[in-house]
């Protein structure tokens, strides 16, 4: 499996003795399947807000981490987590107020049609559960995803996560479609995408496979971040339903206010999914995931199967998740994502007008993709160089997209305009350095 912006053995000799020793320890005890970010890996020992601190005390601006969306070590979240951990931690087979209070608060952020939630520990588990429920409700097996999608690491979800690379086979019941075209494609983006979904569903049926679901990350982050035009998802949702399948909105990356328009990425498109899967920022670092669905879907599934997750929805998780929701509302972080996101995107676009290395700039709120090109063609090599130049200047981003050339900029929701100014300055310096070399 390849990964954009990964540390490789060719960089080992350039590291210090202490870094080499830590990597040897890591490889000995963790094995070869894990990957490290950056040509020169980072050793962090502390985090606060939008900053990460290394072992020497140097501060790095985190413009990539959407897990700690309300800031590293957010005091309100940490306090809620610790308070409940010192009181009780059991599971959902006992009655507990905090679990119910959190579930009620969570579904209240969704359209009324999405009124029930089931808890997991990760987004992968949530997507795995979504597959089980879609199969139960439709009688189908077929799954449609975009061509560089990522939806999880379980046996089931990795089989419809093409971004994991050629070493991880897609299942025979999976079909991939090109992601929606960028704004340059204009108003036809939604129609073209819907046609591709309908064709994929027809191909499944030709092979004797009934379609079960279309699942997309609603900002298409692994496909390079595709946010516009708002509303382009609607025709594809109609297409999968006409084919007898369900629509699953994977909100693990765009959810919890990141796009700046609403709590959930699907709301930008005026659609109501059949199921919504959530994770990562849900607990601001505490392992949480879940599935929010139309009650008739959960009822159909529940008639046939029992569901239990030992740690999913435990009281500590519920208290932590509740604190995250309260911080998002208290600090107006959705509005902040919209305001600061526009400011950051405008700054990047200004830099783009001065650089031949930048193609399209896309995004919504605090989720931005920047295409890196050379002579008009996608350049993963140059994108990786820019990512590592920024890391040298202590600003953290990564890259994604089918060609590995889309810079992925995804800072915590507490990012400020001052943080954005710092980012833009370092970004322009890094571009200049790459162009000059």
What does this structure look like?
By secondary structure, the chain is of the alpha/beta class. It has 2 domains: 42-70 and 332-436, Aspartate Aminotransferase, domain 1; 75-330, Aspartate Aminotransferase, domain 2 (3-Layer(aba) Sandwich), CATH 3.40.640. 37% of the residues lie in helices and 16% in strands. It has 12 helices and 16 strands. It has helices spanning 17-30, 75-85, 97-107, 123-138, 155-158, 189-206, 234-242, 295-304, 315-330, 333-352, 380-392, 417-436, and strands at residues 44-48, 51-54, 59-62, 116-120, 142-146, 174-177, 211-217, 246-250, 275-278, 289-293, 358-363, 368-374, 377-378, 395-396, 398-400, 406-409. The longest helix is centred in the last third of the chain and has 20 residues, at 333-352. The two termini are 29 Å apart.
């Amino acid at each position: 499996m390849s990964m954009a912006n990964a540390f490789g053995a060719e960089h080992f000799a350039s590291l210090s003795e202490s870094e080499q020793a830590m990597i040897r320890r890591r490889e000995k005890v963790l094995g070869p399947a894990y990957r490290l970010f950056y040509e020169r890996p980072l050793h962090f020992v502390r985090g606060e807000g939008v900053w990460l601190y290394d072992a020497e005390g140097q501060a790095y601006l985190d413009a990539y981490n959407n897990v700690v969306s309300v800031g590293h070590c957010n005091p309100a979240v940490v306090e809620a987590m610790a308070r409940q951990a010192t009181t009780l931690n059991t599971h959902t087979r006992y009655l507990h107020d905090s679990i119910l209070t959190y579930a009620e608060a969570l579904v209240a952020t969704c359209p009324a049609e999405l009124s029930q939630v089931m808890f997991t520990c990760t987004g992968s588990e949530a997507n795995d559960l979504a597959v089980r429920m879609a199969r139960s409700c439709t009688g189908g097996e077929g799954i449609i995803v975009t061509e560089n999608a990522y939806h999880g690491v379980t046996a089931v979800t990795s089989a419809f996560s093409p971004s994991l690379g050629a070493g991880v086979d897609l299942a025979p019941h999976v079909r991939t479609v090109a992601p929606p075209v960028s704004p340059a494609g204009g108003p036809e983006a939604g129609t073209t995408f819907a046609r591709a979904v309908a064709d994929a569903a027809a191909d499944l049926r030709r092979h004797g496979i009934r379609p079960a679901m279309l699942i997309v990350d609603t900002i298409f982050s692994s496909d390079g971040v595709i946010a516009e035009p708002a509303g382009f998802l609607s025709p594809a949702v109609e297409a999968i339903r006409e084919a007898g399948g369900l629509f699953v909105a994977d909100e693990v990356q765009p959810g919890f206010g990141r796009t700046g328009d609403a709590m959930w990425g699907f709301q930008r498109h005026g659609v109501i999914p059949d199921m919504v899967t959530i994770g990562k920022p849900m607990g601001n670092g505490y392992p949480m995931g879940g599935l929010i669905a139309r009650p008739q879907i959960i009822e159909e599934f529940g008639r046939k199967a029992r569901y239990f997750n030992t740690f999913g929805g435990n009281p500590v998780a519920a208290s932590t998740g509740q604190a995250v929701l309260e911080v998002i509302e208290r600090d107006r972080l959705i509005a902040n994502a919209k305001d600061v996101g526009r400011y950051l995107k405008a700054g990047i676009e200004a830099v783009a007008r001065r650089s031949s290395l930048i193609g399209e700039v896309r995004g919504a709120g605090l989720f931005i993709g920047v295409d890196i090109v050379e002579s008009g063609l996608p350049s993963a090599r140059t994108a990786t160089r820019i990512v590592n130049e920024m890391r040298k200047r202590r600003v953290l981003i990564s890259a994604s997209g089918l060609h590995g050339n889309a810079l992925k900029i995804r800072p915590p929701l507490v990012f400020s305009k001052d943080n954005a100014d710092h980012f833009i300055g370092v970004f322009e310096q890094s571009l200049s350095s790459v162009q000059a070399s």
